[in-house]
Amino acid sequence: MAHKPAVYKRCDCPDQNRPKKAGCNHSWYHNITNSKGKRTRATIPDSPGLTQAQAQAILDGMADGVAPEPVKANLTFEKWATDWLSRRRAKESSIEKYEIAVRVHLNPRWGNQRLRTIEKRQVETWVQELEANKAIANSTADGHWKVFQMIMKDALQNGKIGSNPTYEVDGPYVGRSTSYVFTPEECWAIYDEFPERYRLIPMFGFACGTRQAEAFGVCEDVIDWDRCLLTVRRQVLRIKETDYKCLLVDRLKTSPRLDSKVVPAPPYLLEALVEHQARFPARLTETVLWEHKRKIKECKRGPARAYFWTSRNNLLNRNTFNDDLWKPALRRLGIKDEEGNLPTFHDLRHTFISTCLQNGIPEHTVAAWVGDTVEEIRRTYSHLLKDHGATHGALAAGLTARPKPTAALIAA
């Protein structure tokens, strides 16, 4: 058997031949002549992280007639992005966001370019263009960048490119997001201004830190009256996966990491809920018993009694709530942020979290209540956690202070 050709790499990593942890993870290649007599190159299977000798041993051990898949020289970004999208197993809403990013933003910029010709300098220039484009918000540009990163990383791992052009490239700058913190007077003014049928919805936001869709999905069976607890495990969704119809779904935004969260329900909320039940009894509806890795249409259904309905006997959706209830109420009350914009419902959740942290409730407790990780709480509310130094600093300093001499030691 003839000796196989030598393996090689085309990346610029300094640690090509002795890969270490966090070192060169690019594939090894070898040259082949295809059936049409054209000279091309092919990847060595499972070669990222191997030394040159190990990759050569794999190539030498291949049987005659068996060769890795040749690299497609004319493979465009658009074709690979389509293939990448077809293999995603995330939630339908996440896949929809990926598809929009690829179709609206990435393909117009990169779609017709051959995948293996995309260079690091081109990517760096594109990032600067994203930052300079005033029509694209920082957070939106960051979302495009992350999708682009995932596609290029997937291409590298599948041997379609020799090196990742996004490696060590900093994404678009994302400034600190600013949120509006309502005062207690503003929270209760919003409650009083809302129609009686819906005034409990903002109360769930500032009293329990629920998201908007979670407040819409509160049902009878989630209230523990004896222990004064609210279990949040449902939300009302109106997305592509539900055919844009409002559906009650047993799923949180953070699924499958978290399937429910329990938060204390203040006495004033429970009192208001009793009054609400007397005037607007909960109605029986269908809830989707969601299962991980299953689409909503494939999941079983179960009964639930939801509290909040429109005048047409439909579950609430965010467009109707925001346009017909939330924004008009804030305009009547004259509540605006420093730039003159109306605060969002999500700012009620921000108000709840900020108030808890400012009053010394540990971040891990707040994180459990609202369904975030401790890292997310620390990253978003680090400016509030610094205040704990003044609140608890004296106590912490006293824990390791030099012990005072006892009476026996003084006498000795």
Describe this structure in words.
- The protein contains 16 helices and 9 strands.
- With 412 residues, the chain is of the alpha+beta class.
- Strands 5-6-8-9 form a 4-stranded mixed beta sheet.
- Helix 2 packs antiparallel against helix 3 (92-110), helix 3 (92-110) crosses helix 5 (138-157) and helix 7 packs antiparallel against helix 9 (267-279).
- The longest helix has 20 residues, at 138-157.
- The N and C termini lie far apart (93 Å).
- The mean pLDDT is 85.
Key descriptive features of the protein:
3-stranded antiparallel β-sheet, alpha+beta, 4-stranded mixed β-sheet, 9 strands, 412 residues
Report the principal-axis shape.
elongated
Poorly predicted runs: none
Give the termini distance in whole angstroms.
93 Å
Q: Topology as H/E string?
A: EEHHHHHHHHEEEEEHEEHHHHHHH
Tell me the Rg in angstroms: 29 Å
Structural class: alpha+beta
Largest sheet: 4 strands, mixed
Strand order of the largest sheet: 5-6-8-9
